[in-house]
Amino acid sequence: MDEQKKSTKSSSPIQKVEIGGWKRLFGKKWIFPAMYLGAAAIILAGVMWYQNSKEFPANPAPQKAASQEQSAPMQVTEGTNEQPAVPVNAPDSTLVWPAKLEATEKVMGFFDDTSDKKAQEAALVQYDNSYWPNTGIAIAAKDKKSFEVTAAAAGKVVKSERDPMLGYQIEIEHKDGLSTVYASLEDTKVDVGDTVDRGAVLGMAGRNVFEKDLGIHLHFEVHKNGEAVAPEQYLPKTDDTTQAK
Questions:
Q1: Separation CA 5–CA 116 (nearest Å)
Q2: Which residue of 160, 197, 231, 232 has the fewest C-beta atoms within 10 A of its own C-beta?
């Protein structure tokens, strides 16, 4: 009887099998979707990290150096065609000497109310037993001969005529309210309405009745907004333009 029960128990078709922890886990229905979601999250995080690493490199020093190099001021070396820097006082030197500088000199200066008495006396024109303040400067050749008078700056001729007291005179308008006047000329080579370049020949220096004591010379004036001003402040600073001879 005992043998029969033992045989029956061992031949039973249904037997309980012990399942391990991992097998029980993979047997759950939700495990595979959860694994897919986890893998996708890991891949997405990796892609984002890669993009950020390209946009913001770990070592930004080369970019900083490049930025500093671009923002550095341009330097001009010798032998290049770059123009030199403009001096700070360039606005006060917009004109050039209206004749050959090496062959001419200033023989009378501009009458300035603020200058000392000696300088004022040297800038007085004697005519008809009276003294008149000089509204420009007088320029003469060192050899006392006639010389070419040239435009101190580019502009438009607005006057070209003969004055009975001052001889031929020319007026040229420039930019910024500036104009120049050339008198005591023996002739004129330009007409009203002409546009002239800086250095263009306007005529030859001559004599005039009003300043006859100065002989052959150029009477040169500078006007700012219609008012006569000291030409020296607009001419290049040289020994011949800073002191009257």
A1: 148
A2: 197
The token duo for 68 is 């500093």
Sign of the dihedral through C-alpha 72, 78, 83, 84: positive
Tokens (6 digits) for 160: 């070209």
**82-103 per-position pLDDT tens digit:** 433 333 333 445 899 999 999 9
List, for residues 180-239, the tens digit of each pLDDT value: 999 999 999 999 999 999 999 999 999 999 999 999 999 999 999 999 999 999 998 765
Helices (H), the chain: 2-10, 21-26, 31-55, 61-71, 117-122, 239-242
Q: How far apart are CA 160 and CA 27, in angstroms?
A: 113
Q: Which of 149, 128, 145 is nearest to 137 (CA)?
A: 149
CATH fold of the domain at 94-242: Glucose Permease (Domain IIA) (2.70.70)
Which residue do the tokens 């020296």 mark? 232
Q: Domain boundaries in the chain?
A: 20-67, 94-242
